[in-house]
Each structure stands twice: as structure tokens, then as C-alpha cells.
Amino acid sequence: MEQKSFFQRLKENPFSWLFSGELFFLSLNSLFVLIVLISIISSITSLFTDSYEDPTGKALVLAPPGPIVEQVAVTNDPFSLVNGSLPSELYVGDLLEVLETASTDKRVTDIVLRLDNIDGTGQVVLYDIGSALQKIRDAGKNIIAVGDSYSRSAYYLASFANEIIMNPDGWLFLDGFGRSKLYYKSFLDKFKIDFNIFRVGTFKSAVEPYLRNNMSEEAKQANLAYLEVLWDSWKKEVTGNRASDLKKDIQFLVDNSDEIIQDSEKGMADALYSYGLVDQLLSRSEQRKYLRDKFGDSEDEESFSQISGFEYFQLIQSEKDDNISENKIAVVIARGTIVDGTQPPGLIGGDSTSKLIKEAHENESVKAIVLRVDSGGGGVFASELIREEIVVAKEKGIKIIASMGNVAASGGYWISANANEIWASHNTITGSIGIFGMYPTFNRALNDIGINQDGVKTSRIDLSGRPTQKIDPALSRILQKEIEYGYERFLNLVSSARNMSVEEVDKIAQGRVWAGSKALELGLVDNLGNLKDAINRAAELAELDEYTTYLPSQDLDWKQRILSNFSNILIGLIPESLRENLVIKTIEVLNEIDSFNDPKGLYIRCEDCLI
């Protein structure tokens, strides 16, 4: 699959991310900043040469810098590159390509996994990577997982290794899957803030935190149903991988971990070792010695003989054939919250994502489009813009496959519904067919401190929607009617696309969330499979014997670049501890607030889809 990584683009044109054809007006200060940036870029590009590491006789080390994702998002810490940090996420397509190539590459016989940073990786992505690791095991190659500690995500992948090594002072917390959220009703009541909520759907629980102090029974029922599917899948893979080592099953360990650890005289790590979850307990120095004894010394004699995943990726890119078919399958990645306007990677922009689809279907070489969705939804208007562009492409005879990742619910399902076929993983969280609107008012809080608003109007109904005054009952009726219309529209959309009656859709809608395997039974998806399966199916539908896949992507526009560079300078002046604990968290909160930007304030969004 053709997707140029950041480093590939940097190598081809070191200044493309900085200029991209825009004019810069340089003051003395900005000139100084530019010189500094050029120095940094020069240092980075000096890493790239046409000579690549030979993996023969070396261990292939895979150490993701952060969660493994469908699309690398714009970082919340834009100064990280200047600090010398690599991107904090890893594109799953690159990792799968490395693993699939390594499984048949005779030069690679040993893989070392370092999984300390992958917490937050979705279960669908983990499943695909685990399948690739199993393919390496089946090829007779050796995998060693090495780490201080293991998160639930890390241990899932580590379980595919021939050997799991952990620090004797490390830990492994396996507490199953859970879903909880904060509830604000009492807090809002204390400050006399009113959240006017409009919704349709028994299970549409995204608005519950503003209406209740706890989770409703309907929400608990829906959440537990899909969590049990994910947990059963996780246990099945891990238990199967460690069957010969485990003393008892995983569920017993999770439910009785306190007693198991109490029985150990040497702490948690020793208890995990005794239970059969890890094979060796080695300190960092012992781990280094073990790997050096196993693989020999590196050329600089500072570590064991190894080639990094990044170096191996560059090598296999250089060895690829340049044969490019005239037939293309466009893979459009839609990851993140669906919001209005043009958005950077990590968010789904109504304008920017629909533009990618438009560019694909206007390209005469494109015979099929695969929409890879990893989203819990967002605004109705932005979702509809994307769906409309899918319909236009379909009307041209271009085959469309919607491939669902970790989550494709609410708006994620809306944009998928009109595809020729919908593919999901058995672990995909989907459905959540419902709609809601939120309208906060602060008039009681303001009145309490002596601030009042009053005026006159020439109309009977006040549609101004000022949050400083109580919502007009007529406006409430209008908004509720709009929500009900939106829900009926959603039902009819799914009914038409899935060849189901509106009544049949309504029974499985109501904002309810389903796991992919159950969604297949209910008719919400057509097949279970990963992105590769979806691409193969798209080629089959388009009757393509040979084809090239590519990922359309957009760059930041010049305004976004200037703002990004400006924020780089500001954030760089803040101490790192504050930047981590205050600035980044603030940016996350502001980004969340900013994502509620639908022109009508209508949302098809699943807040219970993230765990």
C-alpha cells in the first residue's frame, strides 16, 4: 500500500512541511527561528542515505513509540519534534508491512518486541498485529517480548512471543474491560447551570452525564454486552497462546489477583511468573546481557546485534518493485471525531474528508474506494457531507467498501451505510444509531450573582439561543422535532442501504452499541475481516486482476501551519512538566469542546464507544 510516511516525505523534500508553496514574510525574529528549524531539519535528513542496514544475523527490534493507530494524528505537543522526539503514534499499516515481510524474509529469524508505550491501541488493531505475529511464529521464527512492565494491550501482543521477559520489579495489571464516565448533574445543579438535552434512542447515553448522577440500566446493559465480546476475544487469544504455561485460566487470575499476589513472598512479578504469565524475570542489566549473549554484540559493542523496525521498513521500501498499475484502489482513512470544516489527521473533517473522497472518484484511474472508519461519530452535517460524496462515487460505478476499525458507530456508521459492502472485525464497536442535541443555559447562575438579561423582540418566538437566558419553550419544541426528524432520517438511511424495513432497523437502533460479530448477525455489516480483506473484496467487486492501492491525504493549509509554528514557540517556552500536566491536558479539553461545532448542534456520536 502506498503511503508516504513523514520520514519518506522529509527525505524527498526536507522543506515541504514548512513551506509547501506559501510565502513567508520574515522578520529578524522569524528568520532566527527559521535558521534553527533548518538546522534541525538538516540533522534529521542527514540520517537518510541510500545505504540500508542488512538484517542478516540481527534481531529485528520492534518498539512502537506510542499507541498503534489507523492514522497518525497531529500531536498535542507540536514542539516534540524540535525536542528530538519521534511521532508519538505508529501507523498500523507500516507495522503490518514490516511483520508480513519479515515472515517470509529469510534474513530475519528473530524478532524482539518492546511494548512499553502501546497502551491505548484499539482491540481491532491488536488483533490484526497479533495475527501477523502468529504468521511469523508459524514460519518457525523466534519472537521475544522484553519489557519492564506490560499493559493489557502490551501483554496481548507479548502473548504471541515464544518467550516473555519482565523486570522483577515490574507489574502486569489485567483487570478486564470496563467503561465508566463522570456524571455532572449534581455539580451543574450546584452552579445552577441547565443543560437542555434533546435526543432519540433508549440507549443513546452520550448525554446521560448532564442528566444523571450515575449510569442508567440501559447504558449498563448495552456497554456490558459489547465489553464482554471484547474481553472474551482477548482471553481466548491470550489463553490459547499461553495454554501450556498457565496454571489456571485468565478469568481466575483477574478475579482473584489480590489473593494470588498475597500468596507470593516476592511480590507481584514473582506471582505472575509462578502463575505462568511470564517466562523470565530479568532486570534491565540482565536483559541486556541475555540479548547480547543470544544475538551477539552490535558493531559499536554498546548493545546486542539488531536492526530497528524503522531501518527495516526503509530497507523493504527500497527493495520494492516500481511496477505501478493503472488501476487504483483509494483507501481513505477516517479516524477520529467527525467535525465540521477542514481538519488535520486525527480528526474527520466534513470538508476535508469529503474532499479526499471527491479527489479519488474524480481520478479516472480509481476503480474502487475503501473507506477505513475508526470513529465514534460527531456532527450530523459533517457526516452527511461525507456520506453524500460516497453516494456520488457509487453513482459513477466506483465500488465502495466500508472497512470498520476499532469503532465505527453513530456518525461512523452514518458515513459507512451507503457502501456496496460493510466489513468489520468481530471486535469492532458499531451501531449506536441515534441522535442528540445539547444546549446549555446559564441564566440561573447569572441571576444568582445579580446579572440579568432583558430586552424586546418583534417576534413571538425567541430563536436567538442566547445561553445567558432561559431557552424559549418554542425553541425547545423546534429542536426536539429536529432531533426526531434526524432519527427518522437515520433509520430510513440505514433501511434503504441495508435492505431492511424501518421497523427492523428501529429494533436494533435506539442508540444501542453492538460488537462486530453481533452486528453481522443483525445485518448491520456484511462480512468480518480486516482492511486487507476489504481491499481484496473491493478489487473483486471492481473486477481488477492487478491494482495499486494508495492513501489520499491532505496537508495542513498555510493558516494551520502558521498557527502550528506559533504554538510551537509558545509551548517550547513552558517547562516540560507543566507542558505535560497542564498544557496538553488543556489542549485535549479544548479540542473536545471544539469538536461540538455542528451548525445545528445535532450530533450522532457514541460516547460509550471508547474504553
| CATH level 1 class label of the largest domain | Alpha Beta
Q: Got a strand count?
A: 22
Mean pLDDT: 84
How much helix is in the residues?
Answer: 40-55%
Category by helix and strand content: alpha/beta
- How is the CATH topology of the largest domain named? 2-enoyl-CoA Hydratase, Chain A, domain 1
Termini gap: 29 Å
Low-confidence stretches: 9-28, 43-49, 76-86, 558-574
Characterize this entry briefly.
Helices cover 43% and strands 16% of the residues.
Describe the structure.
The protein is an alpha/beta fold and 611 residues long. The protein has three domains: 1-48; 52-177 and 226-318, 2-enoyl-CoA Hydratase, Chain A, domain 1 (Alpha-Beta Complex), CATH 3.90.226.10; 328-438 and 470-558, 2-enoyl-CoA Hydratase, Chain A, domain 1 (Alpha-Beta Complex), CATH 3.90.226.10. Strands 10, 13, 15, 16, 17, 19, 20 and 21 form an eight-stranded mixed β-sheet that branches. The longest helix has 26 residues, at 473-498.
Give the tags:
single chain; 611 residues; alpha/beta; 2-enoyl-CoA Hydratase, Chain A, domain 1; eight-stranded mixed β-sheet; 16% strand; globular
What layout of secondary structure does this protein have?
Blueprint lengths: L5 H7 L15 H18 L13 E4 L5 E2 L20 E2 H13 L5 E4 L9 H16 L3 E6 L4 H7 L4 E4 L18 H6 L3 E7 L7 H4 L5 H25 L8 H6 L1 H6 L5 H8 L4 E2 L2 H12 L10 E3 H10 L9 E8 L2 E2 L8 E2 H12 L4 E10 L1 E3 H16 L3 E11 L1 H4 L6 E4 L4 E3 L3 E7 L1 H6 L24 H26 L3 H7 L4 E3 H7 L4 E2 L2 H11 L6 E3 L7 H15 L3 H19 L7 E4 L6
Parallel strand pairs: 1-4, 1-9, 2-3, 4-5, 5-6, 6-8, 10-13, 10-21, 11-12, 13-15, 15-16, 15-17, 16-20
Antiparallel strand pairs: 7-18, 14-22, 17-19, 18-22
Helix pairs in contact: 3-4, 3-13, 14-15, 18-19
